[in-house]
Amino acid sequence: RFFARSLLSANNKTIVVFNHIIRGSNMQITPFSQTIMDAIDAYNAREEFTYSGATFDFSNSNGQVACFIGGHTHEDENFTTTDGVPVIITTTDNAGAEVGALVRTIGTTSEQAFDIFSIDTSERKLYATRIGAGESRVFEY
Q1: Enclosing H/E stretch for 78
Q2: N or C: which end of the chain has fewer CB within 10 A?
Q3: Residues 6+ apart with CB under 8 A from 102
Q4: How far apart are CA 63 and CA 66, in angstroms?
Q5: Can you tell me the distance from the alpha carbon of 3 to that of 111, in angstroms, rounded to the nearest whole number?
Q6: Region at 35 (left for phi over 0; alpha for psi -120 to 50; beta for the rest)
Q7: Positive or negative: CA dihedral 65, 81, 44, 7
Q8: Are strands 113-120 and 125-132 parallel, antiparallel or unpaired?
Q9: What is the mean pLDDT of each run of 10 residues along the chain (141 residues)?
């Protein structure tokens, strides 16, 4: 409920949503993350969203959620919500915990892996500039 109420107060804003865990250890979207994505889609579509018996009317909102960013799976991944909002999962900066396909070499730049995010609201692009192992990514919203 807090998240949906917060969206109602974000008028004229470009919104970035962060959550630690988007996919659980079974690589399935967590129920909490699915609820967040459903709220994001309803907000951007200016529709009603119901959660736990409370209904939130986003029809008069005028902000926009640009993306949903998280981690936890220790891999780079991206997909979109049902309505096309980018969902971006980033790897861990901890080379020792890396389980993905990135090559990590202790003592070099590739030991690290983190993203610097920037948004170009005019072009409606989100840039994830990678520092260390992995590649930079660009998303449209």
Answers
A1: strand 77-80
A2: N
A3: 76, 91, 110, 113, 133, 134
A4: 9
A5: 35
A6: alpha
A7: negative
A8: antiparallel
A9: 93 94 88 97 98 96 96 88 96 73 84 93 96 94 94
